[in-house]
Specification:
two-stranded antiparallel ribbon, 6 helices, alpha/beta, globular, 223 residues, 9 strands
């Protein structure tokens, strides 16, 4: 319509809001954060992971640390990786806000980190940005997911759990699961799917609009 895009506070001065999720609290920069930084559609996945994550954990593409904070009380240690310095800074703030001292934040490209890491983990969370903007890019996107999973499996202990999501509607639930399981089988490890999920209630699924189901996740226990 040609209208200008304006971001400003209409009333008051506060730009950072406090949000509570379960027993955790987070500061959210509602003006500058990507999707405010809250990603409420991911809430169900974070709370499910809170039940699953134990031992030494890796949170890849950690953004502002919400996932890490949710699993921190059940985990022994967490390494959280993101390429954004601003995201790491906010994540460190959120960890401090909740009193978590067992989270280590690393500013790095996740693919590079997985390639060079020698540490072993009991739980690995992969929440990559959308690899695919359209069907034409689907093949390359799936190769990206396979590489991500294969590199993560190299670091995963026996009986460990890999928890991976996709935020592209072009990658369906079936495609994501098939891609993950084929990669696991290719490296010769047994597996058991222990969780399947989709976006939380604030992003409803609409009848006749399959593109509305854009976010999905799968958790697999690895033999």
């Amino acid at each position: 319509e040609g209208m200008p895009l304006i971001e400003k506070i209409i009333f008051g001065e506060k730009s950072v809001a406090k949000i509570f999720e379960g027993d955790q609290e987070f500061d959210v920069d509602v003006l500058n954060g990507q999707k405010t930084g809250a990603y409420l559609d991911y809430r169900g996945f974070r709370l499910k992971a809170k039940e699953l994550a134990r031992g030494n954990c890796l949170d890849a593409f950690c953004y502002q640390g919400w996932f890490a904070c949710q699993i921190a009380n059940g985990a022994r240690n967490i390494t959280s990786v993101d390429s954004s310095a601003d995201a790491i800074s906010m994540a460190e703030n959120n960890a401090a806000l909740n009193g978590h001292k067992n989270i280590r934040f690393v500013k790095a490209d996740v693919f590079d980190y997985l390639k060079t890491c020698t540490e072993r983990f009991d739980f690995i969370h992969l929440d990559p940005p959308s690899f695919v903007k359209g069907h034409a890019n689907l093949k390359n996107a799936l190769l990206g997911y396979k590489k991500l999973v294969a590199d993560a499996l190299r670091l995963l202990n026996k009986s460990g759990i890999i928890f991976i999501s996709s935020c592209s509607h072009n990658i369906t639930e079936n495609i994501l699961e098939r891609t993950v399981l084929e990669t696991i089988e290719k490296v010769g490890r047994g597996h058991e799917v222990i969780f399947r999920g989709v976006q939380d209630k604030d992003h409803p699924l609409l009848k006749g609009f399959p593109e509305a189901l854009y976010l999905k996740a799968i958790a697999v226990k690895i033999a």
